[in-house]
Amino acid sequence: YNWTLFGILAVGSVAMAFPFIWMILSSFKTTADVYAYPPRWMPSSWDWHNYTEVFRMIPFFRYYFNSIYTSVAQTLLEITLSVTAAYTLSKLKFPGRNFIINLIRSTMFVPMIVTLIPLYLLVSKAGMIDTYRGIILPQIFSAFTIFLLMSFFVTVPNDLLDSAKLDGCGYYRILTKVMIPNSMTAIGTAVMFSFLGHWKSYTWPLIITNKTQFRTLPIGLKYLVQESSSEYQVMMAASVMAILPVLIVFSFSEKQLVRSVTLTGLKS
Fold first, then answer.
1. Would you say 70 and 199 are in contact if contact means Cβ atoms under 8 Å apart?
2. 48-86 per-position pLDDT tens digit
3. 186 within 8 A of 261, measured Cβ to Cβ
4. Is the peptide bond before 38 cis (omega within 30 degrees of 0)?
5. Which residues contact 98 (CB under 8 A, 6 or more apart)?
6. Distance of alpha carbon 161 from alpha carbon 175, whole angstroms
7. C-alpha torsion angle, residues 78, 82, 84, 86 (rounded to 10)
8. Cα 148 vs. chain centroid, distance in angstroms?
9. pTM (2 decimals)?
10. Which of 94, 31, 67, 71 shows the shortest CA–CA distance to 237?
């Protein structure tokens, strides 16, 4: 065994895990524990009051529901759109295909801040300010997700598609019965990246919403910081609750992520 490498990885793992462990423990501390010197690793008493205080200071449940609803909807729509686009661009031959691929690729080089004002004007003209549609629909297109899926779709042998055609399958059945089952690792990875990106989105929901009932969790956490500027234990409690959906999605997508990374190192 290479104990030096294991030692380096162990130190790196501890360094990565330390902020999360500190956040969880701090969420149960009292104010005296937070400001104690030298710093206390463990809370003197496990105080669940910090979690209830979060719901008292801000409408946390509403922000939480909005984030879950919009993130799940955006992820489902983005994956559906990206899967169909990746299949079309990687396996079907038609005039203008390369132009469309280059056009989609070019969007990856345009910073989001450049498109905010034109996108806001379009959404405003469509009457989608302060609506879930205004938050969800403008963010369901992702060139990164399309190209991530295309990189896996091209590895599916064309012989499988030809066999499916001989059996009478059309484009839809080839997609659902051949392409998707053979690319679940890539789709699982895309789901995780997509959900994480939408869950932590701050700028777009901030500028497209004016009412509290439509605002998402990242904006709500900003309000909480203003309300509890000196109560770090309350902020830590809110942070713990905020990362739970991400951990759940990661637990379901972890195997697909590892397999997708592994497959990228194999020769076809």
1. no
2. 888 988 888 889 899 999 999 999 999 999 999 999 999
3. no
4. yes
5. none
6. 9
7. 180
8. 15
9. 0.84
10. 31
